[in-house]
Amino acid sequence: MNIIRENKDLACFYTTKHSWRGKYKRVFSVGTHAITTYNPNTLEVTNQWPYGDICSISPVGKGQGTEFNLTFRKGSGKKSETLKFSTEHRTELLTEALRFRTDFSEGKITGRRYNCYKHHWSDTRKPVILEVTPGGFDQINPATNKVLCSYDYRNIEGFVDLSDYQGGFCILYGGFSRLHLFASEQREEIIKSAIDHAGNYIGISLRIRKEPLEFEQYLNLRFGKYSTDESITSLAEFIVQKISPRHSEPIKRVLALTETCLVERDPATYNIATLKPLGEVFALVCDSENPQLFTIEFIKGQIRKYSSTERYFEILVYARQSPPSVRKNKDL
């Protein structure tokens, strides 16, 4: 077995391998160049498959199960072999593995793209492309063809139509029903395709809510359970520069702490650009070389990077002194 030395583990899951010889515990790693399995007791590599050798990875059965199949090519021929694994984290594992779907040997799986409009946080309509992929939606900038953000099926709670917004529909997202509003003449096709992909590739069931929303309701409920004044009213604010791949230069933001959330506001309009529950914050990490740089890591894997002349430890000190909803997070 040739090991790819430059491969870096990105996401690891505790799994059970099912074979004719029995069941074995394995650490299943999704890496930069390959999928690798390790013996959990010794961390010795037991198998490794470059993405170019992988044919598919898919759930076994429909509904919320634990089993999935990994199919890969054997040698240089056309023969393939399928291995079965199981894990309690099947949706997360499949989502991470399918991020590398375009490197797979068969099909180079891509999604269908749709021209849409996104209702932006600035209350303007922006043209975007939505690509329905096996793992979720990719929101793409039509001018640069770059992915701006992704909406994983595992974090989607469902869809809801807007009755007074032509072609409008919302993705309910993030576990707290955050509403992301899009509009397209192909609304029904987009939603149906996403529901089919989520079931076939991730093994989860997504649904459309029976009762549509009106646009005014969307405006009042766009932050889901955190749309209340308590959740968006600042207790402390810090001027920061946000560093993001979406922007060629750092963007000025007001980073605010509320009773329950970490909120980014646009300093010119004071509109909320992003909102994250404090319970999802995993760690605040300072840069070892630049004292003005820091990152905020979230338990679902997202990372936000900022710089500020206001020292980041003031944010940390404030968070530790904040209400119980903040103090519950030990990393703060």
Can you give a write-up of this model?
- The structure is a single chain.
- The chain is mainly β.
- It contains six helices and 21 strands.
- The strands form three sheets. A seven-stranded antiparallel β-sheet has the order 4-3-2-1-7-6-5. It has a seven-stranded antiparallel β-sheet with strand order 11-10-9-8-14-13-12, covered by helices on one side. Strands 18-17-16-15-21-20-19 form a seven-stranded antiparallel β-sheet, with helices on one face.
- The protein is globular.
- The model is unreliable at 322-332 (pLDDT under 50).
- This is DnaJ homolog subfamily C member 13-like.
- Residues 12-311 form the DnaJ homologue subfamily C GRV2/DNAJC13 N-terminal domain.
**Order of SSEs:** EEEEEEEHEEEEEEEHHHEEEEEEEHH
Q: Overall mean pLDDT score?
A: 90
The helix content, as a percent range, equals 10-25%
| CATH class type of the largest domain | Mainly Beta
Strand sequence of the main sheet, in spatial order?
4-3-2-1-7-6-5
Counting helices, strands and paired strands, the structural category is: mainly beta
* Principal-axes shape call: globular
Radius of gyration: 22 Å
Strand content: 35-45%
Write down how many β-strands occur, each being a DSSP E stretch of 2 or more residues.
21
What is the assigned CATH homologous superfamily of the largest domain? Pleckstrin-homology domain (PH domain)/Phosphotyrosine-binding domain (PTB)
CATH architecture name of the largest domain: Roll
CATH fold assignment of the largest domain: PH-domain like
The number of helical elements comes to: 6
Ranges where pLDDT stays below 50 over 5 or more residues in a row are 322-332
How many domain units?
A: 3
Protein name: DnaJ homolog subfamily C member 13-like
Organism: Leptonychotes weddellii (Weddell seal)
InterPro entries: GRV2/DNAJC13, GRV2/DNAJC13_N
Domain DnaJ homologue subfamily C GRV2/DNAJC13 N-terminal: 12-311
